[in-house]
Specification:
CATH superfamily of the largest domain: NAD(P)-binding Rossmann-like Domain
Order of helices and strands: EHEHEHEHEHEHEEHHEEEH
Distance between the termini: 17 Å
Oligomer: single chain
CATH class of the largest domain: Alpha Beta
Helix content: 25-40%
CATH topology of the largest domain: Rossmann fold
Structural class: alpha/beta
Amino acid sequence: MKYVIFGLGNFGKSLAIRLTELGHEAIGVDNNMTKVEQLKEKITHTVCMDCTDKSAVISLPLKDADAVIVAIGEDEASSLLTTALLKQLGIKRIIGRVVSDLQKTVLEAMQIEEYVLPEEESAERLAMRLDNSGIVDSFKISEKYSIIETKVPKKYIGMSLAQADFTKRYQVIVLTVLTVSKGSENGLIKTFTKASGIATPDTVMHEDEVLVLFGEMKDIEKLMH
């Protein structure tokens, strides 16, 4: 898969390197030549340009990208201008980095539904989510075990947890099931998530629900695929 990352500070750099290590094409963009030079041997491609310059940005393969991540954190104005430019260019999947409540409000007003708070979500977690489209979020609790939020795999839609028997088949435990919906709040369209409580053998999995899984990543990937 192909990703374009604007901003090669600590977060953007870590994300670009991890995506490259996972076998994806990562294009890193920054207006600081020093940062670009430092990464040119570590990620797929690096480009030095002004991220707010439309004539420069349109030269990038944005339409071919599976997602465009605006990882600019130091300069909120540039981050928002870059995001607005990408919306103007019709980029479908934009992930914004949030460093303040005001910036989050502006992104929501732009109808940016995906954003990350680097203090809460590491580059590793975002890379894992981008690496596998089924993963909604992840949290590594030790070197061995992780908690993963993932969409219900199609083959298990309509089945109960007892019928699926993930513990016996994959050594994976379902902690709970999340229902995801969209609604309006203060005039903005937002995504709301509601947990169904502790999962039981009788819990039935439905389309568009999210499973919260506990186990080793290799076992969770087997379940998902």
